[in-house]
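Reopening: structure tokens for the S-adenosylmethionine complex, inputs below.
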Amino acid sequence: MALPKEYVIMMRELLGEEAEAFLASYGEPKRTAIRLNGLKNQADDPSEGSDLVEKDKPSAGRTFVQGRDPVPWAEGAYYTEETERPGKHPYYYAGLYYIQEPSAMLPAELLDPQPGQRVLDLCAAPGGKSTQLAAKLRGTGLLVTNDLATERTKALAENIERAGVGGAVVANESPAKLAAAFGAAFDRVLVDAPCSGEGMFRKDEDMVRQWDAKAPARYAAMQDEIMREAAKLVAPGGRLVYSTCTFSPVENEGTIARFLAAHPDFDVVTTEWPAEWGFAPGRPEWLTPEEAAALGPDRAARLAGTIRLWPHRVRGEGHFAALLERAGPLDRTASDTGEESAPAPAEVAERPKAIEKASGGASFKDAKRGKRTATDRRGGEAAGRGRSPGSRDGSGGDVDTMARYEAFVQESLPGWKPPGWIRIKGDHAYAVSELAGGLEGTAPRARRLAARQGDQASIRAFPSARHGSQA
Ligand SMILES: C[S@@+](CC[C@H](N)C(=O)[O-])C[C@H]1O[C@@H](n2cnc3c(N)ncnc32)[C@H](O)[C@@H]1O
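Re-run output (same inputs, fresh job):
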């Protein structure tokens, strides 16, 4: 593979004696893998949860991975051959697995969301890490999955839907707008940042063509801005993973150093991994003198707790990941185990102040009182009485669709309650998680975002259950 000259010089300077082994890795095949979707590869006994790989009765997805090498750092992930085409298999279209580069599976593992938590994936498209995070939530809690690029967000929404994710909200917003809408509401935040992509040269030769020596500095400025907003979204005691698929220090240790210097309430969490996986520590000595001075020697040394994945050391492509924690007690509103269902609106008494504030307070009080808007109905309640079929409800929903949805539930699913409140969008009915209260139905600002979307989804709420127009 022909690498840019300046890139080779830069990597030789960084890696010294190790550079030859690193450069030789470009002659090796790229690493490929799939990750079983824990939300769909259920074992026969539902009480067995999503601990699927150890079970005796293989689901269709598990049959597909039999005999393959597991990716050791990722739950339910297996290497594939470079020549295979798992994207053409019906199981892929059924959402039984997701095709994901093995190193790219590390950030979600590091973030390690627990069932019941509120999780934000800020730069999420096309959704590899979001689907992984969703599987870890096991249908509980809330996943807000966002990307700034509209076209990419459409692919993200499709992947979330194919994976059968419940309780998710897909957003197409700037981090600043999300920070204004939600505040510090998330237990876990992932920033899988746009980057110069040096770690993906073997996987995607377009990345080689697009690279130039100024790219790392350009991306670093973008990363600083995203991280500034991301910090506002992390709850006290919450965790933030920052990851890239590049090697340049200014986008990795540099971004974390600049972030920590500006956010004394965040610190690096050091994790330990089996030596045979080949993970390497971050390199504080690669900071610029300015970055090092702004952070101070003690905090700079903490950067050794970040993780570098080098293609000549791990069975995967190039990656960087940093696990950060915000100081303070984590004030969980959902249960720690997350096994209980989400509270009904009248019970959401311990909703974080940040959401309450962002939603203007009044609507939250309405929710506490059990008052509902036109789109905030549970199955079985009457819809659109006194309104002509086809007229719009309060936030762009179609009253006729709501009526057909309710008739369908009454006739075909008597007694069934959706696991959230119902929002009508076009000819679909979505059950929106109660934990998304700051976004839909309670937050006037965020509701405006959703309402102005036209046919370009700005915010799409994904259901735990979804019913088409035949409803
Ligand atoms: C490395 S990719 C994310 C890959 C994704 N996490 C996955 O696992 O499939 C980075 C993403 O950041 C998005 N992006 C770029 N600038 C952004 C910004 N300011 N805010 C949010 N997302 C942004 C890009 O559109 C791109 O989809």
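The mean pLDDT is 80. The domain at 102-326 is CATH 3.40.50.150 (Rossmann fold). Marking as resolved unless the reporter disagrees.
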